[in-house]
Amino acid sequence: MSENKAKGPPAHRFSPGYKDNLFYEWYRLGKPSMRSFYSNVADENAVVGRPSIVTVSNWYNDEWKERAAEVDMEVQTVLKETQIAEQVAMMKRHGETGRKMQEMSLNWLVEHQDELTPGTAVRMLVDGIEIERGTAGIPEALEKLRNRKDEDLLDEIGQLIADTPLDADN
Question: Is 135 within the bounds of a domain?
Fold first, then answer.
């Protein structure tokens, strides 16, 4: 049974590259309904023409939904990795700032012992120590977590849950 001209060419006549381009256009547009997306579907070329809305809907049902879910997962993974990397970089900067503040205050104390008020010197030293203490080891720990396999993290979380006593009163 062949498709008539009104329905468009048979689905198998469209190249995989054309279908890929349509998928990525549909995804880029925010995964709209087929009815609203179909107005964006262009001819593959002058010979093959434009697929019917039924053909595009079949591609959506047979391939695109599952493929979009995979792409969504990849996007989430990249976003999480980016967020962790930014957090690690920020914490490293904070640690370095704390160390610099300590160094400055100690140098100032040595060079200007007679000019410095005790309160200022102590406050600067305490603040620098607190900032360094607050960030010590955290960037490295986050980096280790980032490099671990999902299965290992899930196993560790499962073990923590199993080891946590349950309080029957709550």
Answer: yes
DSSP 30: T
What are φ and ψ of residue 135, in 5° steps?
-110, -5
If one counts the domains in the chain, the total is: 1
Domain annotation covers residue 104 = yes
Q: Supply the range of the domain harboring residue 98.
A: 7-163
Tokens (6 digits) for 39: 């107005």
pLDDT in tens, 82-125: 888 888 888 889 888 888 888 887 887 788 777 767 787 788 78
How far is CA 60 from each of CA 55, 68, 96, rounded to the nearest angstrom?
9, 10, 51
The answer to whether residue 168 sits within a structural domain is: no
Q: Is residue 148 part of a domain?
A: yes
Q: Has residue 126 got a pLDDT over 50?
A: yes
Which tokens in the block code for residue 55?
């053909």
**Quick check: pTM over 0.70?**
no
Long-range contact pairs involving 121-130 (C-beta distance under 8 Å, separation at least 24): 127/98, 127/101, 128/98, 128/99, 128/100, 128/101, 128/102, 128/103, 128/104, 129/98, 129/102, 130/98
Closest CA to 43 of 64, 22, 67: 22
